[in-house]
Amino acid sequence: MTKGVTYLKKLISNLLPKSCMDLLYYIKYSKERLPTTYIYNETLMGKHGIEIGGPSLAFKTTLPIYALISTLDGVNFSNKTMWEGVIEGGNTFNYYKGRLGKQFIAEATDLKDIKSNTYDFLISSNCLEHVANTLKALDEWVRVIKPEGYLLLVLPKKESNFDRKRPYTDFNHILSDYEGNIAEDDLTHLDEILLHHDLSRDIAAGNLAQFKQRSLSNLSNRGLHHHVFDMPLIKSIFSHYGIDLIQSDENRYDYFALGRLGKKL
Question: Residue 139: which CATH number?
Fold first, then answer.
């Protein structure tokens, strides 16, 4: 009986959202499954990968790939995040029903503890917009993927969130950030964000004064969206790295892009 109760508690714990934000995302994604899911599944099935920022409900609901992949490691920027709560490094990355991968605590722009050409694929959902130096991150992400491996990005559509009044970012902007070696403590976009951020779609941020205070501490909480993505920007990023876009989709909330890397030189 005791073992049965313990198992039931563990099962419920794995299924329940870990926070209010997690619950909101679960509601958001649960009814938005992509009709092309089979393409992503066939591409990543049985492969060994890594996720930047996660685990993500998008990969349990809208695009449920966790159940089909072989193994998955994870990267989060801190031992405590507003999305995952308190986490520990080591073999603790619980991405699907008790399946564990290695949890790395590292910047998305600095994966120095991971060898090059390690993973069959890399996935990331609603994470890259929180990174100040987009291409510096992608340098690292591409580096740890094996030749002819896969990159899957899921990025939010501004119409569905608090960025709806902000302009889209163009590729030259993120290239300039890269050439200027912008660091993750950068607040270049803060004035624009404070002017256009739709607080009615970001209840957790509080009022404008509270949101500004939180934003000034963005290095510790990473709540800001530095850039606003659309599909042309995503395609430009893939082209920059010579990544062949093999599938792209969008729903009410997100853009989805799956690409295959070249052989690497």
Answer: 3.40.50.150
